[in-house]
Amino acid sequence: MSYIDFHTHAFPDKLAASTIPALEKEGNVTAALDGTLTALLESMDRAEIDISVLCNIATRPEQFDSILSWCHKKRSDRIIPFPSFHPESTSALQQINEIHACGFKGVKMHPFYQRFYLNEDRLSPFFAKIEELGLILIMHTGYDIGFPKERRADPAQILAITRKFPDLKFIATHLGAWDQWEEVQEILAGGNVYMDIAFSLEFMEPQKAKEIIEAHPDDKILFGSDSPWSDQLETIHLLKKLGLGEKKEMAILRGNAEKLLNSY
């Protein structure tokens, strides 16, 4: 049985060569890979990962076209790219429609790199459009290791958004909210939101991770590594060490992702 990684990143080769060292310095972290698509595919082979969702982030409005073009070029049976629009773009709603028309399954947003708070009213039309079109929304949630600790997408804001848009396929990354896991357990666990496990198990007590996962609906936890920032195979090992049982493990490692991707 092979797996599906719902949260990865890669860059064009020349961009990776400068971007990865800069981000390593910002976050005081060491990447597991060099950030190229070639390295990601090699990592997938090592970890028996059949499919990776490739998350992109438009850090400026004018990046939409280049990201969409990159996604078209890199889309394959093994790589499912999620493009990105910037909320400050005057064409954002059109761009969401274009993402949908091109057959992509979802979009990625990041409140730190895109300078927004999750509960801002200006975002509601975008969430409504994403919900209407049936796209998947992968949202960076919680703090970010490369930025000061600001509550841009905390569990209370996530809960409010998922209540306002109950049919929105909202993925709260980093097991609900990075480094806000007590609040995740209190506010989000058991609710109507997907969570991936990307870049979280390395930073938590295993018992806390297990409690959150076991308190959440069985079909709403997704395997994600945040590669190149975490090693895909190591993330799988960390998940299996939690002792969740084979049925739940396989739902997380493949079944839930397969069902979600096929829902579009």
Automatic annotation (TrEMBL):
Under the heading SUPFAM superfamilies, the entry gives: Metallo-dependent hydrolases (SSF51556)
Keyword list, A-Z: Lyase
Q: Which GO terms describe its molecular function?
A: carboxy-lyase activity; hydrolase activity
Q: Which GO terms describe its cellular component?
A: cytoplasm
Quick one: a GO biological-process term for this protein? secondary metabolic process
Query: Lyase as a keyword?
Result: yes
Do you know which CDD domains this protein is assigned to?
A: metallo-dependent_hydrolases
Where the record annotates domain Amidohydrolase-related, the positions are: 4-261
* InterPro entries, A to Z: ACMSD (IPR032465), Amidohydro-rel (IPR006680), Metal_Hydrolase (IPR032466)
> At the top level of its lineage, which domain of life is listed?
Bacteria
Q: What is this protein called?
A: Amidohydrolase family protein
Please tell me the species this chain comes from.
Answer: Candidatus Desulfobia pelagia
- Lineage, broadest ranks: Bacteria, Pseudomonadati, Thermodesulfobacteriota, Desulfobulbia, Desulfobulbales
